[in-house]
Specification:
Blueprint lengths: L1 E9 L4 E8 L5 H13 L4 E6 L2 E6 L3 E5 L8
Antiparallel strand pairs: 1-2, 1-5, 3-4
Length: 74
């Protein structure tokens, strides 16, 4: 299972750091490609975590995603 932390900038200008994991993907590079491909779709939806909370991201509300070697700060 691969896990990564992403900094997401929303269309409204807000930013949030989320953690995302996927059981079927083993590498972080593949995971990031999966996130990009999912959010690029018209009906793209990701279920992620922000601290202890479940966050659902809809592709149409995301303006940018940042991925750093060490990840974002939660």
């Amino acid at each position: 299972m691969a896990t990564t932390v992403l900094r997401v900038r929303l269309v409204g200008g807000d930013r949030m750091d989320i953690s995302y994991d996927h059981a079927d993907i083993s590498g972080e590079d593949q995971l990031v490609e999966h996130v990009i491909a999912t959010l690029a779709q018209d009906s793209g939806v990701l279920r992620a975590r922000h601290g202890d909370r479940l966050v659902v991201l809809y592709g149409r509300g995301v303006a940018a995603i940042e991925v750093a070697p060490r990840g974002a700060v939660l």
